Amino acid sequence: MKEQQETANRPDNTAFTQQRLPAWQPMLSAGIVIPGFVIIGLAFIGIGIALFVTSQNIQVLERDYTGVENNSPCFKCSDPSTKNCVCKLDFSLDKLFEGPVFFYYGLSNYFQNYRKYGVSRDDRQLSGRLDNFQSPDEGCVPYQYDANNKPIVPCGSVANSLFNDTFKLYQIVNGARKLVPFDGKGIAWWTDHNVKYRNPSITPLKNAFNGTVKPTFWSKPAYELDPSDPANNGFVNQDFLVWMRRAALPDFRKLYRRITEGDYKNGLPAGNYSLEIAYNYPVLDFDGRKKVVFSNVSWMGGKNQFLGIAYLVIGSLCVVMSIVMLIVYAKFKFPDEE
Predict the structure, then answer these.
(1) Rounded distance, CA 7 to CA 244, Å?
(2) From the CB of residue 165, how many other CB atoms can be counted at a distance below 10 Å?
(3) Element holding 90 (H helix, E strand)
(4) How many Cα neighbours within 13 Å face the side chain of 249?
(5) 78 with 287: CB under 8 angstroms?
């Protein structure tokens, strides 16, 4: 009886259950490992040089316009009591700033990754569900209802803190100002614009917001964010979508516009420029800073020296390790390898 039970519990006599399948494992020797380290190291060094040189060739122009310093052109606008303030930031280019040129705004010491801030939104509302227009999600508190108990649309801290500085760029030609055209189409993620965020299927869009109020910090409602383009209003507004995709780090920049049209499709020519800034967004209360960034890109993306340096360091370590292993092998090699 006991023998029958043992036989019943015994695995099948197959190559798989009895672990008789053919197997292979490399026999690592100095003749394989040392050349392998050399090849990997040289490959990494080559990639690192290509990445570093490419990154160095990317042009970047940054200008801080927080206005903390007395000699800053935006110092007069940094006072919170000053309303509708406009300041000008002048700069010069010694050579062609090759296009396409990307124009960003940057914020420092701004923690968009803070959890309570990040969850303060109503995704159902942002997907166009009218029920959530009248009854916003409780996660939006304290920006769920206004003082008169009217629902806020869009609700929550993320939407309420929408960046609202605006910019106009002029080239100074023979003393006259020539407007540089900005392209604001397609600056947000495709999935955000076409999948995640949707407007209610109501025409005109304004009617969907009946009985609601705009966020406290906003100067105009969502359906009037872009008077020049009716299709760029509501929850699919490009600037709104860019802001709603939160940054992971406290110092970040977000795409504002591209410069790809007219006389500037090949970039910004050398010369004098003036950036006109409608200064609205307060940052001094949390010791933040604001800046604008002009940049172009390459096949590897924007300027990023870290990736090239990382490849160079790892490649160099591989080569150094291969030399160390070669010395050790030559001095202490085992008799069976002779």
Answers:
(1) 65
(2) 16
(3) strand 85-93
(4) 6
(5) no
> Could you give phi then psi for residue 212, rounded to 5 degrees?
-120, 170
Residue type, position 195, single letter = V
Contact 281, 69 (CB under 8 A): no
Distances (CA, A) of 142 to 132, 139, 160, 235, 246: 16, 8, 10, 20, 19
How buried is 210 (Cβ within 10 angstroms: 0-12 exposed, 13-18 middle, 19+ buried)? Answer: exposed
| Residues 270/91, Cβ–Cβ less than 8 Å | no
Count of other CB atoms within 10 angstroms of residue 225:
20
Express each pLDDT in 69-83 by its tens digit: 988 999 999 888 888
Contact by Cβ (8 Å): 64, 290: yes
Taking only the tens place, the pLDDT of each residue in 190-225 is 999 999 999 999 989 999 999 999 999 999 999 999
Structure tokens at 128: 């166009």
The DSSP call for residue 109 is S
* pTM for the predicted model, two decimal places: 0.84
